[in-house]
Amino acid sequence: MTAVSYRTASPEDIAACIVIRGQTRENAVSEARLNEVGITRESWAQSVRSGALPGVVAESAGEIVGYCFGEIASGEIVVLALLPQAEGLGVGKTLLGQVMAVLRQQGHSRLFLGCNSDPAVRSHGFYRHLGWTATGETDGFGDEVLEYHFLN
Q1: Angle at 105 between CA 100 and CA 111, to 5 degrees
Q2: Rounded distance, CA 142 to CA 72, Å?
Q3: Which of 151, 103, 102, 105 is nearest to 131 (CA)?
Q4: Which of 37, 40, 69, 84 has the most CB atoms within 10 Å of its CB?
Q5: What confidence tens digit (pLDDT) does each residue in 90-123 have?
Q6: CA distance 52 to 74
Q7: Distance from C-alpha of 127 to C-alpha of 107, rounded to nearest angstrom
Q8: How much is the pLDDT for 30?
Q9: In this structure, are residues 142 and 128 in contact, taking their beta carbons and an 8 Å threshold?
Q10: Reduced 3-state DSSP string for the chain
Q11: 40-93 pLDDT, tens per residue?
Q12: Which residues have C-beta within 8 Å of that of residue 46, sequence separation ≥ 6?
């Protein structure tokens, strides 16, 4: 993969983000499934447009290869997704760090996210390695809720 650059996500990026969400190696979610749970191209784009869901995209050779979005109101990391060829290069860590910084600047001292509880799934170890800890709770999708506390 060529060099990776990062930029703030725009509403125009959402169509590509939805396609990537269906192409991730683990935990792929199709556009039809996203629509079933109320996430459409327009609703996602509107949340980005309004500032409620800031995000960062990673690009390589002019194409989006990964992204991360967080929710301003709650401090939740809503999604982090990468194409398989972007894994293992620090792209996910960089995307997550940039969105965490945005949420921290908005006054959040604690962030949270839902993560697969199976240790065999990459995300399980990824977040823990970066300092996220289990809360003992599960979310509405059956995922384990992890949290991150910023040190002052």
Answers
A1: 40
A2: 23
A3: 151
A4: 69
A5: 999 999 999 999 999 999 999 999 998 888 888 8
A6: 10
A7: 21
A8: 84
A9: no
A10: CCCEEEEECCHHHHHHHHHHHCCCCCCCCCHHHHHHCCCCHHHHHHHHHHCCCCEEEEEECCEEEEEEEECCCCCEEEEEEECHHHCCCCHHHHHHHHHHHHHHHCCCCEEEEEECCCCCCHHHHHHHHCCCEEEEEECCCCCEEEEEECCC
A11: 999 999 999 999 999 999 999 999 999 999 999 999 999 999 999 999 999 999
A12: 11
Question: Average pLDDT of 146-152?
Answer: 91
pLDDT at 1 over 80: no
Q: Give the pair of three-digit tokens for residue 115.
A: 């993560």
Cα 70 vs. chain centroid, distance in angstroms?
A: 7
Q: Is residue 108 packed enough to be buried (19+ CB in 10 Å), middle (13-18) or exposed (0-12)?
A: buried
* Pair 89, 60: CB distance under 8 Å: no
Residue with tokens 């992204």: 67
Cα 92 from Cα 58, distance rounded (Å): 9
| 140 or 6: which leads in pLDDT | 6
